């Protein structure tokens, strides 16, 4: 009769060990879930912080750009104030020309360059064709309506242009119509 009692004790011990293992595993799972939740919260906070910092950098860059443009604005304001006070057109035009040169230097300093247009071959990556006209020499930019600009190899704004397209010779048109 001893055997069933020994078996029962062995089974009881194994059961106790299995219960202890289960409790340890449940505790480990609980700790892992809590850790995962903390990591998720940390990552969400990191994303929010990065978005906030990116926005702050953008605002600072805009502020810097505006600070660089303000002297040009101030000079325009002075030119108009002076013109309204003295009504001297020649001085006003001279002042506006200086302000234009100042603004041109600002753009050049930022790496902004005009896109060559008139006389160039039409390039849809650089030019926007508003009008096309027939001419002997097709595919050339004939007129620029609005200058385009590029910076660091990227188009900021394409040139708005009039483009020539090759004239179809009369004989070709007649033979096409005859078909």
Automatic annotation (TrEMBL):
Arranged from A to Z, the UniProt key words for this protein are: Chaperone, Coiled coil, Cytoplasm, Stress response
Any one Gene Ontology MF annotation carried by this entry is: unfolded protein binding
Q: Which GO terms describe its biological process?
A: protein folding
TM region positions:
none
Q: Which residues form a coiled coil?
A: 8-56
Q: Where is the signal peptide?
A: none
* Xref: CDD domains: GrpE (cd00446)
Enumerate the subcellular locations listed in this protein's record, separating them with semicolons.
Cytoplasm
Principal localisation: cytoplasm
A Gene Ontology CC term for this entry? cytoplasm
Any single Pfam family the record assigns to this protein: GrpE
For this protein, the record's PROSITE patterns field holds:
GRPE
**Oligomeric state and partners?**
Homodimer.
**What does the protein in this record do?**
Participates actively in the response to hyperosmotic and heat shock by preventing the aggregation of stress-denatured proteins, in association with DnaK and GrpE. It is the nucleotide exchange factor for DnaK and may function as a thermosensor. Unfolded proteins bind initially to DnaJ; upon interaction with the DnaJ-bound protein, DnaK hydrolyzes its bound ATP, resulting in the formation of a stable complex. GrpE releases ADP from DnaK; ATP binding to DnaK triggers the release of the substrate protein, thus completing the reaction cycle.
Regarding protein family, the annotation reads: Belongs to the GrpE family.
This protein is called: Protein GrpE
Species of provenance: uncultured Acetothermia bacterium
Give me the gene this protein comes from: grpE
């Amino acid at each position: 009769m001893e055997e069933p009692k020994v078996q029962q004790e062995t089974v009881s011990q194994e059961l106790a060990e299995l219960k202890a293992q289960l409790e340890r595993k449940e505790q480990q799972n609980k700790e892992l879930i809590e850790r995962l939740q903390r990591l998720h919260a940390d990552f969400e906070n990191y994303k929010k912080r990065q978005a906030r910092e990116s926005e702050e950098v953008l605002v600072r860059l805009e502020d810097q750009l505006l600070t660089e443009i303000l002297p040009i604005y101030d000079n325009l304001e002075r030119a108009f104030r002076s013109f309204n006070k003295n009504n001297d057109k020649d001085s006003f035009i001279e002042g506006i020309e200086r302000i234009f040169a100042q603004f041109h230097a600002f753009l050049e300093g930022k790496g902004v360059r005009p896109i060559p247009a008139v006389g160039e071959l039409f390039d849809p990556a650089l030019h926007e064709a508003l009008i096309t006209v027939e001419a002997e020499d097709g595919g050339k930019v004939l007129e620029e309506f609005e200058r385009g600009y590029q910076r660091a190899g990227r188009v900021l704004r394409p040139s708005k242009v009039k483009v020539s397209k090759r004239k179809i010779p009369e004989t070709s048109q007649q033979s096409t119509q005859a078909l």
